[in-house]
Design a protein that fits this description.
With about 375 residues, the protein is an alpha/beta fold. Helices cover about 35% and strands about 10% of the residues. The strands form four sheets. The protein has a four-stranded mixed sheet with strand order 2-1-3-8. It has a three-stranded mixed sheet with strand order 4-11-10. Strands 5-6 form a two-stranded antiparallel sheet.
């Protein structure tokens, strides 16, 4: 006869394969899902409250009536490495008709030694930053930090473009500015009433953010924190996905900064990290729920998802850089052109600079 202890031990050994298969549901989440430290949360809350206090009627950006507005575009760079294409962006900004049409802000992961390019528009534009991890809510916090800082810094900031260190411009500054601020034909999805002008600028503006409601992995992404973790604030039918690189209006920047409800859900740790990309879920879901008609549902940053590796898009390398590539990356079914593109290896800088004057900045 076998002892009771032997039987229990043998049964446990037999169950180990099953426990192994179920482990992701019960084991503590891995590194990227570590909760955001309370001091970081409190720092952010103070910053966001300051920015939210600027949301009076004169600061909300939805309709304009000034005959000579000095609207600015805030370029928000989110990076955890050197700004590889700083020389290209420097030329982009130098060619602007006025320095009073843009501002630059950089959130650089403080745990990485990021060079501050001397003598460039980037040198003194680094904001107080916190550590970030890919596929984690820290990227949401970093983006919100950039938005809040830009809102506080300059009330003329009307559009907020989120970019990475691997993004490059596809057009001149003038083309980008006129497309966002003055053109009545740039957004091919706009109705005639939405694209109407007064005093040389459009009366109504939308945010250019990708919002996708149909995706094969949508349920897996939604349930990555647990089947009912997002309820009741975010029912599955309201859950959306999209690119973390977008251009939003001041009105929508304030929506993001003032949110507390959805943030409590999207900062929860995931137990399915292969399906958990909070930065690709939070912004599309929030703005889709808050103002779906105020968003174009598409992004202005071209990304090639052919040959995706570990969740990363296709990465272009120097031999591929050509005028034909730039022209191809510009092509869009929703707007007259994409304005930015990613992802490029750092050594693409030289061939891109070679095309700057003759192709990229020649619209």
């Amino acid at each position: 006869m076998f002892s009771t202890q032997f039987v229990l031990t043998f049964s446990l050994l037999l169950s180990l394969p099953i426990l192994f298969l179920l482990a992701p549901r019960f084991l503590p989440p891995r590194h990227p899902s570590v909760p955001i430290p309370l001091p970081d949360e409190l720092d952010d809350l103070s910053l966001f409250n300051r920015a939210a206090s600027l949301s009076g009627p004169s600061n909300t950006f939805s309709h304009l009536s000034s005959k000579s507005p000095k609207l600015k575009i805030a370029f928000l760079f989110l990076t955890n490495s050197d700004l590889h294409f700083a020389p290209l962006w420097q030329q982009f900004f130098q060619n602007a008709p006025s320095k009073n049409l843009y501002n630059v802000y950089v959130h650089a992961d403080p745990s990485v030694n990021v060079t501050r390019p001397k003598g460039t528009v980037f040198e003194f534009r680094f904001i107080p930053a916190k550590k970030t991890y890919r596929a984690s809510p820290t990227l949401i916090s970093a983006t919100r930090r950039l938005l809040a800082t830009a809102v506080i810094d300059d009330p003329a900031n009307a559009f907020f473009a989120v970019l990475s260190q691997y993004c490059v411009p596809l057009h001149s500054f003038e083309y980008v500015y006129s497309s966002l601020v003055t053109s009545t034909t740039f957004d091919l999805t706009q109705s005639p009433s939405e694209s109407a002008q007064y005093g040389g600028v459009r009366l109504k503006y939308k945010s250019f953010i990708e919002i996708i409601s149909k995706n094969r992995s949508l349920w897996k992404r939604y349930a990555a924190r647990g089947r009912f973790a997002m309820m009741p604030e975010v029912p599955f039918e309201k859950f959306r996905v999209g690119s973390q690189f977008f251009v939003v209006t001041r009105k929508h920047a304030l929506v993001v900064i003032k949110d507390r409800t959805l943030w409590r859900k999207f900062k929860l740790p995931c137990y399915r990290e292969d399906e958990c990309f909070p930065e690709e879920h939070y912004f599309p879901t929030l703005l889709s729920m808050a103002d779906p008609n105020g968003c174009t549902h598409y992004t202005l940053t071209k990304v090639n998802w052919t040959g995706t590796v570990n969740g990363h898009p296709y990465t272009y390398r120097p031999p591929e850089i050509s005028a034909e590539l730039i022209y191809r990356l510009r092509q869009s079914n929703f707007s007259e052109s994409y304005l930015f593109a990613r992802k490029f290896t750092p050594d693409c800088l030289k061939p891109l600079m070679g095309l700057a004057d003759s192709v990229i900045f020649r619209d």
